[in-house]
Amino acid sequence: MAKCNPRLSANKTSIRGVVGELLGMTNPDMPLISLGVGDAASFSCFRKGKADFNEALIDAVSSSMFDCYPPSYGFPFARRAVAEYLSKGVSHGISEGDVYLTVGGTQAIQVCLTVLASPGCNLLLPRPGFPPYEAAAELAGIEIRFYDLVPSRDWEVNLSQVQSLADENTIGMVVINPNNPCGAVYSSTHLQEIAETARDLNIPVIADEVYGHLVFGGSRFVPLASYAHLAPVIIIGALSKRWMLPGWRMGWLALCDPCGTLKQVKIATEMLMNVTSGPASTIQAAVPRIISDTHEEFHRNVLTVLETSLNLLYSRINQIEVLQCHSKPRGSMFMMVEVNTTLLYGIENDMDFAKELIREESILVMPGSIIGLKNWVRIFFGISPELLIEACDRIQAFCKRRQI
Length: 404
Ligand SMILES: *Cc1c(COP(=O)(O)O)cnc(C)c1O
Prior knowledge:
Blueprint: H1 15-23, E1 33-35, H2 51-62, H3 76-87, E2 99-102, H4 104-116, E3 122-127, H5 132-139, E4 143-150, E5 156-157, H6 159-165, E6 170-176, H7 188-201, E7 205-208, E8 233-238, E9 251-256, H8 263-275, H9 281-292, H10 296-317, E10 323-324, E11 334-339, H11 350-361, E12 363-367, E13 376-380, H12 385-402
Parallel strand pairs: 1-12, 3-4, 3-6, 6-7, 7-8
Antiparallel strand pairs: 2-9, 4-5, 8-9, 10-11, 11-13, 12-13
Helix pairs in contact: 2-9, 3-9, 4-5, 4-8, 10-12
The protein binds pyridoxal-5'-phosphate.
Pyridoxal-5'-phosphate is lined by residues 104-106, 130, 176, 180, 208, 210, 238, 240-241, 246, 251.
């Protein structure tokens, strides 16, 4: 038997594994509606005004100027465009030299955790959370410590728990804002409290702002970099969500470090970027036109459709007695819903709920236990309102049938 990396050989439950199992259980008489793993980009209702993005790429390809290798950290003009985008409204701007272009937000997560990993270290992650952080931490040999997001406080970070979990080996805390899976959008007061906690603990904040600006209902997105004078911020972003281009695999890692505490991290990031491979040259070439130009019609339409779907889902879910959404999402594309299993026949937990729902109604939802919250489910609402109505009808019919 050939040997392999033991960190990759453990038989762990992964999202893909669970989703794969659930997808094998659909009702053959009904078309599948996936509210489990989200890809809004597959719906035409989000495409209005999107042709500009394609043109930027077509021009890059047609010019033949980007058949070459890109520099290890990305083309300077593309890094500058990202730096300018991230610096808007932030007093400690992000400079071109502190932006590293990555293959989607996922590679930014991997680079960040690989760079921060030191022997015996631990990392604070939110629960419920986003599983790629756990996967990247495990691969890098980082111990994971979960802090809770509190449903009764609009999913704010439990900061006293963060303080008690951290020790001298803690290398950082991950904050996802706007939040996947809860849909929370943190106030500037709460973001400042987070930064103050990180300052007291002497750790950087890893700010996953992949859903940055995807906020509605009058909410405002405040970048964590606004508080970088308190604690250094490592920003993770991508074109995948706000611009609906997940297949382009374009993301970034950016350092906002006005106090200069990330000097070693920066050197290590550059060493790692020098020996890995980043996003395709042609995709990088399209970045300035995509993120610098306003594309107002596109962004407005995305927010309008998302908010329509959210309002629809929220009112329908709260009409179902066995389901409850405690805190209406104000951003991202996800909602956490609590399932009252004691009122449901033949359903003991969130996994049973997801299995029975897909078996009977061909609706996929994400069981909360795989992201850290038992007897909750995560529902994706980045789909067309018409399809969401159909999905809600089926969820309602299922719950009614199963209610004791
Ligand atoms: C989608 C997502 C990412 C980045 O994903 P890519 O598809 O690799 O760009 C990062 N963080 C969160 C919370 C996400 O939902």
